[in-house]
Each structure stands twice: as C-alpha cells, then as structure tokens.
Amino acid sequence: MFQLRSFPQNGEHTMPAHAKSRARPLDAAVQRIITLAGRAASPSRMAREVEIIIGEWERELGGEVEPIQERVQELHEALVEGASDAEKQVWDVDRSDVAAARQAEATLVALTTCRDAAAQRLRP
Q: How far apart are CA 89 and CA 106, in angstroms?
C-alpha cells in the first residue's frame, strides 16, 4: 500500500504513545487524510477535508500568514509524495485482483485531489 509520510524536522523522532495527543499538526492532518482515503471518500469530500484542516490551522494561528503557509507547504509536500507512491501502487497492483485495483485507483484520485487542494492554498 502507499505511504503518506510527514517530514521530521530538526532531529524530531517518532513520538511516544503518551505524546500522541500532542501530535504535530501535520501528522494529525496526514492521519485524517489517510483515514478518509481508506474509506474511499469522494474526491470532493477529500478536497473539503483539506480546506477544513487549513481552516482549523488558520483559527489556531490567529490568521498569521507565514506559519499557516509553512504548514500548508509541508502538507502539500507530504501529499505530493503520497500521490507519487499511490501512482506507483496503481501500476504495481495485480489487475486480476479487481478490488485491489479499484482501491489503488481510488487512493490515487483521493491523494491527487488533496494535493491539488493544498496547492491552491499556497501563496505565490
């Protein structure tokens, strides 16, 4: 299956289980997207989730443009990588396994949609 990863920064490592509630915003966003993709959510629902996530960040950060854009950029980078991995999975899936092929294609569409939604929120 594809892997959608967030990027550790400045020597960050995997967090212990007790720190899960304090997960980095990017990690939480990626997990939400993965969960929806796994449920075969529609492309419009996936794009809406990206908008919801970014809206939450805007409220959390009081509309400060630079930190919001940094988060959106990190999310976009993770989604670019995830969509690339999903595309490889589509090519590698056994076409005789119809369910697996459909799931791989749905995941690719979902992640591509999310990637594009995040890209639209990046400021030039």
A: 11
Whose CA is closest to 29, among 85, 65, 68, 84? Answer: 68
- Tens of pLDDT, residue by residue over 33-69, are 999 998 989 999 999 999 999 999 999 999 899 999 9
User: Please, what is the Cα angle at 50 between 48 and 56, to 5 degrees?
Assistant: 105
CA angle 82, 84, 88 (to 5 degrees): 115
The overall pTM is greater than 0.85: no
Secondary structure class of 124 (helix, strand, coil): coil
CA angle 64, 120, 40 (to 5 degrees): 110
Tell me the H-state helices in the chain. 25-38, 43-60, 65-92, 98-120
